[in-house]
Specification:
The protein is mainly alpha-helical. It contains 23 helices and 18 strands. Bound molecules: 1-deoxymannojirimycin. Involved in the maturation of Asn-linked oligosaccharides. Progressively trim alpha-1,2-linked mannose residues from Man(9)GlcNAc(2) to produce Man(5)GlcNAc(2).
């Protein structure tokens, strides 16, 4: 036993001096038959049975002993590793697993029934837990994605609520809001196969535009698709990532969620407003604030609300003027503002200060800070105190004196989105903003009377007004008006709904003509109705096309309100032209002259191409319940913002914001 039990074989004093062998080595060598019997002899050198000690065993006896022992060892190992529930034996017996001990000792049924009974109970519990988990998983799988998202949001809101301070503010000093996604954030495939294919095609275009930006210009404001590098216009100062923020909601509504997540991550980690640079208040508001707000309302991700409010607060110093009419340009660090040097004696511009309303109302709602809403409501007050020539709003207003600058009026550049925001303020307030409504319909009447004309061949257009004289030119930007008039037609006073729908359709037709009369089937920046031409650009500096959305925007609204298939056809014509002439290997580019037979690319992929042009195209080939108009209003950069529903229980409180 001593020889076997100890780890080393001790050598008897009588034995000759020999190397020390381990039992394992000896067994191994014997077992493998490699050790000659003679080699073992030194241990058993004395054949005399009477001599004391283990060395007196005979060789055969030793073999038998070794065999018995190894059989025993094998049995033990077999029992440990191969009998059922051996793991428990291992953990319970050898490793003294506390889990096993607790279960067996403190379980409700613990008693003297023995370990077999305990095992049964443990197994039964595991089975029960398993079944419960399966049922829960089944339950989860049966839920619709929206329900799941809503549950996650509710849980998040609950956690946020639990961690808020005494004023009901969260860690970012924002009020806790119960996020509820408005309906139609994503759509479904249209039934008609052709429409479905066309919609898929638009998504592929978005993918090409986005992937190219991601590959060549990630983090820059825009992409140069021909030279395959980043591009930054000075409209955004040192703020970066305009394309990312502008594209967020388009990615979401097209269900490009991997791309949306990458964009979200960039916003979270890199979007920085602490810049010592001058920005355009209008551009930053419509693209960045608008883009962030939409991304928040579509996804419910708090990072977007936080960033939108942070940026909104940075824009507030722009309103520090004697009248409260904001500056066009603002240094985000110093808070010092000024106006464009070219704008009529230091005036602010109607389309710029008049295109803050929708975003600022939502900023007040999401931040709990009424200042945003007060600032834009004050703009209305100033405008309503002023006399308007022929009921029209001039493009220039001096923020110091509160007086109009030059009497230029336009529904295109410098004026356009002011009118759009009057109508949409009313719609976004769930039709409770009566002031906005009246201002819109009065202005539209003045525009119709003073600016709308018909060409000799019957094309309706909206001219520009300069001190009482008409310039018979219509900008590509003005083409948005077809969609706006259609959107407002339903609420038009004095039975004018039908008439306004006709006007909208006529403008859509004129703008379509401006496309079809070019060589490349894409519209010029401005077209004229004088000197013997109709809907054609005559000046070289008006022949370019920079991927603008306005014509397609009008097709989308007209399609929604009429379901006349021609609007989808016209949209498809534009898609084919974009693919043929604007698509390049590194994205989509604008064109310098739409009348030239081959395109000369301007090497810029504008951020509004992803925000607006592709979004409106996608919606043109989607069903009406995708971003339905009774729940969503688009800002001027096509960022959908939810209608702020009236609190029906309180007649004196028209909507949450007010
Ligand atoms: C966009 O940035 C907005 O639509 C704005 O109101 C004017 N136009 C450009 C795109 O053309």
């Amino acid at each position: 036993r001593a020889a076997i039990g100890s780890s080393r074989l001790s050598v008897t004093p009588h034995a000759p001096l020999l190397p020390v062998w381990t039992v394992e080595a000896a067994l191994c060598a014997v077992g493998s038959g490699k050790m000659p019997v003679a080699t073992l002899l030194p241990f058993t050198a004395t054949p005399n049975r009477k001599s004391a000690g283990p060395t007196s065993f005979r060789l055969t006896e030793k073999f038998i002993l070794l065999l018995v022992f190894s059989a025993f060892i094998t049995l033990c190992f077999g029992a440990i590793f191969f009998l059922p529930d051996s793991s428990k034996l291992l953990s319970g017996v050898f490793f003294h697993s506390p889990a096993v001990e607790t279960n067996t000792r403190t379980g409700p049924d613990s008693g003297d029934s023995g370990s077999a009974g305990n095992d049964e109970r443990v197994l039964a519990k595991i089975r029960k837990d398993h079944e419960k988990a399966l049922l829960e998983a089944k339950d989860t799988l049966q839920k619709r994605p929206e329900e799941l998202n809503q549950e996650i949001m509710n849980d998040k809101a609950k956690v946020a609520k639990d961690s808020m301070d005494q004023d009901g503010k969260d860690a970012n000093n924002l009020p806790v809001v119960q996020y509820q996604r408005p309906p139609g954030a994503t759509g479904h495939e249209p039934l008609d196969p052709e429409t479905r294919d066309r919609r898929t095609k638009i998504k592929e275009m978005m993918k090409h535009a986005w992937d190219s930006y991601r590959r060549y210009a990630w983090g820059s404001n825009e992409l140069r698709p021909v030279s395959k590098q980043g591009h930054s216009s000075n409209l955004f100062g040192d703020i970066k990532g305009a394309t990312i923020v502008d594209a967020l909601d388009t990615l979401y509504i097209m269900e490009m969620f991997e791309e949306f997540d990458a964009a979200t991550d960039w916003v979270d980690k890199n979007l920085d407003f602490k810049v010592n640079a001058e920005v355009s208040v209008f551009e930053v508001n419509i693209r960045f604030v608008g883009g962030l707000l939409s991304a928040y309302y579509l996804s419910g991700k708090e990072v977007f609300r936080r960033k939108a409010v942070e940026l909104g607060e940075k824009l507030l110093p722009a309103f520090k003027t004697p009248t409260g009419i904001p500056w066009a340009l603002l240094n985000l660090k110093s808070g010092i503002g000024r106006n464009w040097p070219w704008a009529s004696g230091g005036s602010s511009i109607l389309a710029e200060y008049g295109t803050l309303h929708l975003e600022f109302m939502h900023l007040s709602k999401l931040s709990g800070n009424p200042e945003f809403a007060q600032k834009v409501m004050n703009i209305r007050k100033v405008l309503n105190r002023l006399d308007k020539p022929q009921g029209l709003y001039p493009n220039y207003l001096n923020p110091n004196s509160g007086q109009w600058g030059q009497h230029h009026v336009s529904v295109g550049g410098l004026g356009d989105s002011f009118y759009e925001y009057l109508l949409k303020a009313w719609l976004m307030s769930d039709k409770s903003d009566e002031e906005g409504k009246k201002m819109y319909y009065d202005a539209l009447q003045a525009i119709e009377t003073n600016l709308m004309r018909k060409s000799s061949s019957g094309l309706t257009y909206i001219a520009e007004w300069k001190g009482g004289l008409l310039e018979h030119k219509m900008g590509h930007l003005t083409c948005f008006a077809g969609g706006m008039i259609a959107l407002g037609a339903d609420g038009a006073p004095s039975d004018k709904t039908g008439h306004q729908m006709e006007l909208a359709a006529e403008i859509a037709r004129t703008c379509h003509e401006s496309y079809s009369r070019t060589a490349l089937k894409l519209g010029p920046e401005a077209f004229r109705f004088d000197g013997g031409v109709e809907a054609i650009a005559t000046r070289q500096n008006e022949k370019y096309f920079i991927l603008r959305p306005e014509v397609i925007e009008t097709y989308m609204y007209m399609w929604r309100f009429t379901h006349d298939p021609k609007y989808r056809e016209w949209g498809w014509e534009a898609v084919q032209a974009l693919e043929q002439h604007c698509k390049v290997e590194g994205g989509y580019s604008g064109i310098r002259d739409v009348y030239a037979s081959t395109p000369n690319h301007d090497d810029v992929q504008q951020s509004f191409y992803l925000a607006e042009t592709l979004k409106y195209l996608y919606l043109l080939f989607s069903d009406d319940d995708h971003l339905p108009f009774d729940h969503w209003v688009f800002n001027t950069e096509a960022h959908p913002l939810p209608v702020i529903k009236k609190d029906r229980t309180d007649p004196d409180r028209p909507n949450e914001v007010e």
